[in-house]
Amino acid sequence: MKLDITTLDGKKAGSVTLNEAIFGLEPRADLLQRCVRWQLAKRQAGTHAVKNRSDIARTTKKLYKQKGTGNARHGAASAPQFRGGGRAFGPVVRSHAHDLPKKIRALALKHALSAKAKDASLIIVDDVKLAEPKTKALIERFNKLGLQSALIITGADVELNFDLAARSIPNVDVLPVQGINVYDILRREKLVLSKDAVDALEARFK
């Protein structure tokens, strides 16, 4: 697969041949769904909690005798039936994360990249650097490239001026190549890869 390389100003800067094993697969929705579900479950805090029966500081003295009253057999005021008692079956602090094989995660990333390439939503740029951290100037460049909603993947490090200029632009995310993931790729309309990012991805999946 061959794609043109552009600059941030929208000018042509050559072309690049993409690896078909990474960018030329037929996207599978089931793999993408599994990986997105794994990502979202893993990042859930799971810190929701309530006071259960054992957490309530109330008397544990038996309320009334066991037999002869006609009432239910209660042994403590912390029972869920009573006002001020503990909550029955309430949420507890836990992890929502579940396992997903590493090979499935790697394959899902390939399919996400292939999905963007198939939809013509993949843009390759020669370099992601700015002389000055000017947000207004960067927005003008994005407009030339037609970027309203985009994930931009740079090389190993995000250049400081570009990071400062892009951080306040809505619907635009900037990540180093190590942070590329399926969820962020799918949640934006366009995927912008620097030439260094393409080389790093092809080396990663070699």
Automatic annotation (TrEMBL):
<keyword id="KW-0699">rRNA-binding</keyword>
<comment type="subunit">
    <text>Part of the 50S ribosomal subunit.</text>
</comment>
<dbReference type="InterPro" id="IPR023574">
    <property type="entry name" value="Ribosomal_uL4_dom_sf"/>
</dbReference>
<comment type="similarity">
    <text>Belongs to the universal ribosomal protein uL4 family.</text>
</comment>
<comment type="function">
    <text>Forms part of the polypeptide exit tunnel.</text>
</comment>
<comment type="function">
    <text>One of the primary rRNA binding proteins, this protein initially binds near the 5'-end of the 23S rRNA. It is important during the early stages of 50S assembly. It makes multiple contacts with different domains of the 23S rRNA in the assembled 50S subunit and ribosome.</text>
</comment>
<keyword id="KW-0689">Ribosomal protein</keyword>
<dbReference type="Pfam" id="PF00573">
    <property type="entry name" value="Ribosomal_L4"/>
</dbReference>
<keyword id="KW-0694">RNA-binding</keyword>
<dbReference type="InterPro" id="IPR013005">
    <property type="entry name" value="Ribosomal_uL4-like"/>
</dbReference>
<dbReference type="InterPro" id="IPR002136">
    <property type="entry name" value="Ribosomal_uL4"/>
</dbReference>
<dbReference type="GO" id="GO:0005840">
    <property type="term" value="C:ribosome"/>
</dbReference>
<protein>
    <recommendedName>
        <fullName>Large ribosomal subunit protein uL4</fullName>
    </recommendedName>
</protein>
<keyword id="KW-0687">Ribonucleoprotein</keyword>
